[in-house]
Design goal:
With 464 residues, the chain is an alpha/beta fold. 40% of the residues lie in helices and 16% in strands. The protein contains 14 helices and 18 strands. Helix 1 crosses helix 2, helix 1 packs across helix 3 and helix 5 runs parallel beside helix 13. The chain is elongated, with a radius of gyration of 25 Å.
Length: 464
């Protein structure tokens, strides 16, 4: 009896290990073959494990059960806590935790995974990237990140095609349909809001093409393999809280959000407004969309200075893309060092340079274009048969000029240590491409590009 009990335990362990090898679920016939158990013994083991909640056994299949899933989730939480201790500080919400923008995050504490897409070939894959636009330097960095990842993963890529939709949903729909028709195995999509893009993604998934969204999403009802993005609500909350505390809870401010047609900008602005509402003595003098363009920020702020002058106590921007323009407008108006009111907004190297040179208090949370690198990694994992997180949120550091921390918002990094004086003004930081990344000298080789030139250089309708 002791021997048979030991053999039963060994067989149960072998079954659980086989489930691990098959990403948590497999047919009964495959698992029986893997562990070499007779039919009766196999089903007896499955029944015992199912009674304990370690597996479930729908007809003809065996999968991980609720208790085993809880073990996995607890282990993942422990790994995540270790990562948090080693890496940058997680963005901590101000007030209640944010509501997810997608339907992929299930009940609290659970990890939601997407099933792998069946690989179309065992070796290299054809990848398409449908980019929303090339309207600002951040989007250049996003494209560079995808290309950088493709270069380093070229042994798994047959071809990468990059198309820019120039903020037109119908054009993006046509781009996606075109790439699917050409035979791509997987797509990365920085989505433009609208029914057209959602329909194109839904059709691509129905045809067996894996789709990873990056930066911008679509309606939660549209299927996707994964969504890689940043925490836009935390960006809005933290920068607004810093500005409110910097002003001691009272003062008149100007709000310069990004692009009103883009989901990240709307989420950041809503989060910032919710914080400012908690400070009744803070008044918004003006609020105007900038399209994340430096010249728009400069023009709008010039008019605001002419109208409100010294009444402007602070400026909230969701990015340094327009924040740099606002800072320049104050300099144009003759403001001397230390006279410019506190600003928020990072990402752009020039924003940090201007704030430090003019001794302007600044707080920022960079929106990392390194999410393009992660998106390609997740896509390839799915194409190679691996389970992937249905939602990946990139972490960012809180960056503040020296001496400008507040009671609730402390820096992970001083702006003076973050800025790159040796690199161009249009550099986007947090790129994930290393300290030597220079957008003006970026040349890259990956399967499918021409003459080692980045697709970000020319938003042409490249042939597929």
């Amino acid at each position: 009896m002791p021997g048979s009990q030991r053999n039963g335990v060994d067989a149960a362990i072998a079954l659980l290990l086989a489930l691990v090898a098959h990403n948590g679920e497999a047919k009964v016939s495959i698992l029986r073959r893997d562990i070499g158990a007779p039919r009766a013994s196999f089903h007896r083991i499955v029944r015992a494990l199912a009674t304990a909640g370690l597996v479930e056994a729908p007809r003809g299949r065996v999968r991980v059960g609720p208790r085993a899933a809880a073990f996995i989730s607890a282990h993942a939480d422990a790994v995540r806590r270790d990562d948090d201790l080693r890496g940058p500080r997680s963005l901590k919400p101000y007030g209640p935790p944010p509501v997810s923008r997608t339907a992929e995050v299930a009940e609290r504490g659970r990890i939601v995974l997407s099933r792998p897409m069946a690989a179309c070939r065992s070796g290299c894959f054809r990848i398409g990237f449908s980019n929303a636009s090339m309207s600002n330097p951040w989007r250049v960095a996003l494209v560079h990140g995808v290309e950088y990842a493709a270069s380093h993963l070229r042994d798994r890529i047959e071809r990468l095609t990059v198309l820019h939709a120039e903020d037109e949903a119908v054009r993006q729909q046509a781009d996606i349909q075109r790439m699917v028709a050409s035979g791509v195995d997987g797509l990365i999509v920085s989505a433009i809001a609208g029914k057209a893009t959602g329909e194109a993604i839904r059709d691509a998934m129905a045809r067996g093409v894996a789709v990873v969204l990056v930066d911008r999403g679509v309606e939660a009802s549209v299927p996707r393999t994964s969504f890689v993005t940043g925490d836009d609500a935390a960006i809005g909350r933290l920068t607004a809280l810093w500005l409110a505390e910097r002003l001691a809870g009272a003062g008149s401010i100007v709000l310069l959000p990004g692009d009103g047609a883009a989901e990240p900008a709307r989420v950041r602005l809503a989060a910032a407004r919710a914080v400012f509402e908690r400070f009744p003595r803070i008044e918004a003098l003006a609020e105007e969309w900038t399209g994340w363009r430096r010249e728009a920020g400069r023009s709008i702020m010039r008019k605001a200075i002419a109208r409100f002058g010294a009444a402007i106590a602070g400026v909230w921007c969701d990015s340094g893309l327009q924040g740099a323009g606002s800072l320049q407008a104050f300099l144009d108006a003759g403001y001397r060092p230390s006279e410019i009111p506190p600003h928020t907004g990072g990402d752009l190297n020039l924003a940090y340079k201007l704030a430090i040179r003019s001794r302007t208090p600044l707080a920022a949370v960079d929106y990392p274009p390194s999410m393009g690198i992660k998106a390609l990694e997740v896509l390839l994992t799915s194409l190679q048969g691996g389970w992937t997180p249905s939602s990946v949120r990139m972490e960012s550091s809180v960056i503040i000029t020296q001496g400008a921390a507040t009671a609730s918002v402390a820096p992970d990094l001083w702006a003076e240590d973050h800025v790159r004086w040796d690199l161009p003004d249009d550099l986007i930081l947090a790129s994930g491409m290393g300290a030597s990344y220079n957008p003006r000298r970026f040349r890259i080789h990956y399967p499918g590009n021409v003459y080692n030139r980045s697709a970000a250089r020319s938003p042409s309708r490249a042939s597929i």
